[in-house]
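Repro:
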Amino acid sequence: MKATGIVVEYNPFHNGHLLHATESRKITNNEILVAVMSGPFLQRGEPSLVSKWARAEMALKAGVDIVIELPYAFAAQHATHFASGAVRLLDAIGCDSLCFGSEDGTVEPFIERMNWRKENLSLLDEKIKFFNTEGLSYPAAVAKSYEVLNEQNPLSLDLSLPNNMLGLQYVEAINQYAQTIKPYTIKRQKSGYHESELHTEKISSATSIRKAIFESSLPEINDHLPETTYQILDQYYRQFGQYHHWENYWPLLQFKLLSHTHEELRDIYEIEEGIEYRLTDAAKISTSFSDFMKSVKTKRYTWTRIQRMLTHLLTHTKKEEMIDLNPSYIRLLGMNKNGRAYLNKHKKDFSLPMISRVGREDEEMLSLDLRANRIYAMGLQNPMARKKMLLADFNHPPVMLD
C-alpha cells in the first residue's frame, strides 16, 4: 500500500479541500491519503475554529484515510519550519509523495526555483536583509527580493502568491529532509487564500467561510462545504456553545501582557526588536483583540507575525524551547478502515513512534502540544465544556471510521 501526504489546516474543511484531497489521490495514483494537520493553533497565529478532533472527523468523512497532528512547534510557525515539520512527519509515516495546492499548478517551476535559490542563497539573503531594513515585513521583503532578482534571471514562478511561496518551502524541505518523497502540485481553484467574501460558486476560501460563520450563521455557507462538515460544525456548536475566535482569548492575553515585565516578554519566542513596549502600551488602551491589533500592526510587522508572537505568549513558549526543532513522534488523530490497514501493515517501519492516546509517560515529549491544547480550552466560556476540552488530550481516542 502506497501513501500520499498532504499538509492541511482544515479551518474548516470546505469544497476546495475536498477537490485537493480527491485530485491528490488521483494524480499520484496511491491507495492511501495521509493528512498532517495543525492542532489547536494555526500557521497564521490564530486558534482553529473547532478542535483538532472535529477537523480530523471532517477530513475522514470526506475521504482522507489517516490524519496525524502537526505539532505546535511547527504548526504556529513561519513557512520554513511549518513545511519542514510536515514533510519530515510524512516521510516518517512512509509517504512516497506529497501533493500541495498552488497558484501555479505545475511542479517544475518550483524545482527550478529551488535549484536557483541554492546557487544564489547569499545574494538572496543580502536582498532580503536590505528590504527588511527599508521597513518591509519579512514576507514582503522576500517577495520583493525574488522580484528584483527575477528581473536579472527570469523564472516563471510568482512568489508574491502565498501558496506558491509555501509550495517552494515544501519542495525545499523534501530536498533537504526526504528525498524519497516526490512532489506534486495542483492548481488552486477560484478563491484566493486570503479572500474574505464568499464566492457565488461553491469554492470559497476558509477565511471567507469563517467570516460568514461569525457574521451571520451556518446556513449561509451550506453550499461551500461538504454536508458532513456542515453537520460537524453544527454539532460542535451545540456541544460547546461557541466556535473559537481570538476575541475569546483577549482577557487572558491582556492579563499576560500587563502582568509580565518587558524582560520576561523578550524571553517569549518571536517577541523581539523592542516590540514588547508597543504590545504593552496597546494592551493598556485596547478593549478588544481587534482594537489591540489595529494599534500594534505596522508595515514591518504583519498581522500574521504579530498573531504568532501573541500565540506563543498565550502558551508561554520561550525562545529556548524552539531551538533545534525535530519531530520526535507521530500523533494519530484519526483513521478509516483503509488507514487502519495501512498502519497495521507499515507501522513497524515508521521512523518515529506513533502515539494514539497520550499517557503520563508522554507528557514531557508532548509538553508544548499539551500546553497549547490547555490554552485552547480556556477560550471556551462554558465551564463544563472547558473541563471536557482540558482533558481531551488524555481522554479522547483517535477518531475511527469504518
